[in-house]
Design goal:
Helix content: 25-40%
Radius of gyration: 30 Å
Strand content: 15-25%
């Protein structure tokens, strides 16, 4: 008898091929077995020939029992319920009644169990902001707006000229963009920000605050005010746990502290007199210069002016928005004037009024009437309702060259393919490669990035999210930022979109997949592990959770490939992460996870270069990666070291030696003296492989 997972693999193989013998070849069984299970599915049975469930004696009385439980609010005794249904004609035993009543009472209480919010705020659950006195800017006293996340080591401080609502929410918009996520609650000590008035003692919500909350998907609420404080010497101080920002005689000084503060400027849209100048005389501004990412730009450039929509997809915070800015630079380099380039970012509060395709089309109409082709770059386009119709219209009219980015899980839904099928090209954007990481290090730090061995050790721990490498961070601060990015993607791209109700179980499954990066596992193994933790979950639910994580690019499923049989195998797949830094951010550094993390780095590099990657099977042995790109192929083994023993070297070399073709073969390790070649197999340090121009 096949297990439920084997039956699922057989049915999936049949759905893919539509042929009994082809499905049997994929699933590794007889075509007669495939036919039997397909016929069983059509009969509505998972196991063909299994007897249908026999109706119980008490089944017809369950509605009456459910009503009794409901009317008694889950308190009725089983013996009382037994007497009542016996009077109705029930002829079963009291034991059966007790079991049925216990199940109905448990279901009743489970649906009405009170849910308590945690007393300690979780990361990304709540953000709070306050104000403090700042320096004098252009003769006017500045106000320091400060926003921080619960448990976060980062603070965003922005100078304002006033505390009007437009200025405050413009500052909140800029701060949330720098944080890179949306919390569930935005807390303030000023009740007037969220309450317009009180009617009969009942607070009436401020319409502007409520509308802004709906736009961002958060709730604005009040809390006990704590900051700012006024010192005895007249110096205005904004106090934060771990650091102070003070202003004396118009000079802003940031005291050295253990927690970093990000100082930036924001344009105050509500300042007196409609001031349009940039506030920068007293603040230390973080300057972010764009670093070229030719790997993606070289893929985009051939499609410039082509009648296709350029769609940038990928993991959240992997640099899609910055790529659009680099595309604008390329367009300007081609001599295209700025007035023919429309670059809109719908994360900005300034574009909150453009919430529909019609409103956006009206906004673009004047620019589209200009002479020559107009280049339209739409960032976070999913914030506009029915955006697919607009994109389809722009492409059909032929007057615009369109580029879009946004939440990957939404952009890859079926609507886009329906409206512009065959007229878009999708480009996956991944976090920084090791080569791009070195470029960022040269641009944003004073480190000597020519020491590639030392830099690779740092890259191994910090990962490749661009935001981590534009400022100099300690490892603990980098881990905090990566954790925030991960939780933001988890909440916004998975939990919310897929309406997953059991968030705790989902996070446990996600943590299991991350902790087992590079290790083959099945949904049944995850379910059994949860059972050992006294948690129950069906393996079908595990499959759904893993599919949702894959849709958000948090993990990717890598199938196994029989090199000799030239067929994909439907069992014991591996999973790798969209960025290896997530492993260390969640679990810390561990030698046990190092082999899987190294595999993850190499897998990401192969995917960036356009290879389709599988795990190879050669008889009883395994090749870590079989990478194919059109007619090219290469085989890669990844290990921490092969210098420990001859047995370790044999284990890594034997699968490659058993492959009887002449495609390139590599063994990648951290061994400092790696670099030899024997029998057509190249032994290289991992970082040298990552920096190679060709393979």
């Amino acid at each position: 008898m096949k297990s439920a997972e084997e039956i699922m693999n057989i049915l999936e193989a049949f759905d893919l091929t539509g042929l009994l013998r082809d499905a049997a070849g994929l699933a590794g069984c007889s075509h007669h077995t495939v036919a039997r299970y397909v016929a069983g599915r059509e009969q509505g049975r998972l196991v063909p020939g299994a007897p249908a469930g026999r109706p119980g004696v008490i089944d017809e009385f369950l509605p009456e029992l459910e009503e009794l439980v409901e009317r008694s609010k889950g308190k009725i005794r089983a013996d009382v319920a037994h007497e009542k249904i016996t009077a109705m004609g029930y002829a079963g035993s009291g034991r059966t009644t007790r079991r049925a009543v216990a199940g109905l009472k448990a279901a009743w209480h489970a649906g009405r169990r009170r849910v308590h919010l945690p007393r300690v705020a979780e990361p990304e659950m709540r953000a709070q902001y306050g104000f403090g006195g700042g320096p004098r800017i252009g003769g006017a006293a500045a106000i320091l707006f400060c926003l921080w996340l619960a448990w976060s080591r980062f603070r965003v401080v922005l100078p304002l000229l006033d505390k009007s609502q437009p200025s405050v929410f413009a500052a909140a918009d800029a701060a949330l963009r720098r944080i890179g996520g949306i919390p569930a609650y935005l807390l303030t000590g000023n009740e007037r920000t969220v309450t317009a008035e009180h009617v009969a003692g009942i607070p009436v919500r401020n319409a502007f605050a409520a509308e802004s909350g709906r736009y961002y998907g958060l709730t604005a609420a009040t809390c006990v005010p704590y900051d700012p404080k006024q010192t005895d010497d007249g110096t205005t101080t904004l106090y934060l746990p771990g650091e102070e920002i003070t202003s004396t005689n118009g000079i802003l000084s940031v005291w050295e502290a253990r927690r970093p503060v990000i100082i930036a400027t924001v344009l105050s849209s509500g300042s007196a007199g409609g001031c349009n100048r940039q506030h920068g005389s007293g603040a230390r501004r973080v300057s972010v210069n764009l670093v070229d990412r030719p790997l993606y730009l070289d893929r985009i450039e051939p499609f410039i002016d082509a009648p296709v929509v350029k769609v940038l997809t990928g993991l959240r915070r992997s640099g899609k928005s910055r790529l659009l800015e680099l595309v604008v630079q390329r367009l300007r380099g081609r001599g295209i004037p700025q007035e023919r380039i429309v670059h809109l970012n719908f994360d900005s509060l300034e574009l909150a009024s453009i919430a529909s395709a019609r409103a956006l089309h009206a906004h673009l109409a004047a620019r589209l009437r200009s002479q020559g082709r107009v280049y339209v770059l739409l960032d976070e386009i999913q914030e506009v309702s029915e955006w697919e119709r607009l994109v389809n219209s722009l492409v059909a009219e032929g007057r615009a060259d369109v580029y879009i980015t946004g939440s990957n899980s939404r952009l890859l839904s079926g609507e886009l393919a329906t409206y512009i099928a065959g007229r878009y090209v999708s480009i996956e954007v991944w976090p920084l490669s090791f080569g791009e990481y070195l470029a960022f290090g040269a641009a944003y730090s004073s480190r000597d990035v020519s020491r590639t061995g030392e830099e690779f050790a740092r890259f191994l721990r910090y990962g490749g999210f661009p935001g981590v490498h534009v400022v100099s961070l300690e490892e603990a601060d980098a881990r905090s930022m990566i954790t925030d990015i991960y939780r933001s993607a988890l909440v916004r791209d998975v939990l919310t979109r897929h309406a997953i109700r059991d968030a705790d179980m989902f996070e446990r499954v996600a943590a299991f997949a991350i902790d087992n990066v590079g290790n083959p596992f099945s949904a049944r193994r995850v379910a059994e592990f949860m059972r050992s933790q006294r948690r129950t979950i069906r393996h079908e639910t595990v499959l759904n959770y893993l599919s949702a994580l894959t849709g958000a690019f948090l993990i990717s499923r890598v199938p196994r490939y029989d090199i000799r049989g030239r067929a994909l195998l439907a069992s014991d797949e591996k999973h790798y992460l969209g960025d290896h830094g997530i492993v260390h951010a969640l679990f810390g550094y561990s030698d046990r996870r190092l082999p899987g993390v190294l595999e993850n780095i190499v897998w990401l590099e192969l995917r960036r270069r356009g290879y389709d990657v599988t795990v190879g099977k050669v008889g009883p042995t395994e090749v870590d990666f079989v990478a194919r790109r059109r007619e090219d192929a290469l085989y890669v083994q990844v290990a921490v070291t092969i210098a420990a023993s001859a047995q370790t070297r044999l284990r890594e070399y034997a699968p490659l030696e058993a492959i009887a073709d002449n495609h390139p073969k590599y063994v990648l390790t951290l061994d400092p003296l790696a670099g030899d070649s024997s029998g057509g197999i190249h032994h290289l340090p991992v970082h040298d492989f990552l920096l190679s121009d060709t393979y």
